[in-house]
C-alpha cells in the first residue's frame, strides 16, 4: 500500500499531461516565431526592390512605410519567442541552434541591432531621406544575415534555396 502511494505521488509529480502541454507550448512558440520571421521576410522582399528602383506601380511609399513599421513591430513581438524550452533542434523541431541559449546576450544584441535598423528605416522613409533609407536597409540586412549565420542551422538542401534570400544583402548598394 505504501509503495502504491509512493508510486501514485511519483506519477503525479512527473504528470505526463503537464509535460506534454509544456512540450506543445514550446512547439507552438517555435511555429509562431518561424511564422513571424516569414512575415518579416515577405515585407523585406517587396520593400527592397522598391527602395532600389522605385518604379513598382503596385507598391508605393505609403505601403513601404507600413511595411517598415510592420517589420519593426514583428521584430519586437518575436523578441520573447525564444524561451529555453524551445531549444529543440536535436529533435528537428527548430532550425534555431543551441548556441542561442549558450550566448544569449550576443543573440539579444543582434536582435537589438535589427530592431534599431528597422526603427531607423521607418524614420528615414517617413522623412523621404533616401540615402539614409539605403544605409538602414543595408544595416537591417546585415543584422538578419549575421544572426542567421550564427544561430540558424540550415540543411545543405535548404542552403541552395535560401542562401541568397536571407543572407542579408537586400539591395545592391550595400558593400
Ligand atoms: C537575432 C537573430 C535573428 C535576427 C535579427 C533575424 N532572424 Fe530570422 N531567424 C533566426 C533564427 C534563430 C531562425 C530559426 C527559427 C526556428 O527555426 O525556430 C530564423 C528564421 C528565419 C526565417 C525562416 C522561418 C521558417 O519558416 O523556418 C526567415 C524567413 C527569417 N528568419 C527572416 C529574417 C529576416 C528577413 C530578418 C531581418 C529583417 C531576420 N530573420 C532577423 C534569427 C534571427
Structure, described:
With 175 residues, the protein is mainly alpha-helical. The protein has a single domain, classed as Cytochrome c/b562 (Four Helix Bundle (Hemerythrin (Met), subunit A)), CATH 1.20.120.10. The chain contains seven helices and no strands. Helix 5 (104-126) packs antiparallel against helix 6. The N and C termini lie far apart (74 Å). Bound molecules: heme C (HEC).
Please identify, by name, the CATH architecture: Up-down Bundle
Order of helices and strands: HHHHHHH
**CATH homology superfamily name:** Cytochrome c/b562
Radius of gyration: 21 Å
Helix content: over 70%
Report, as a whole number of angstroms, the end-to-end distance. Answer: 74 Å
CATH class label: Mainly Alpha
Give the overall pLDDT as a whole number. Answer: 87
Number of domains: 1
Q: Which small-molecule species are bound to the chains here?
A: heme C
> How many β-strands, per DSSP?
0
> Which band does the percent of strand residues land in?
under 5%
Given the helix and strand composition, which structural class is it?
mainly alpha
Low-confidence stretches: none
Task: Could you tell me the CATH topology label.
Answer: Four Helix Bundle (Hemerythrin (Met), subunit A)
Shape: elongated
How would you characterize the largest beta sheet? none
Number of helices: 7
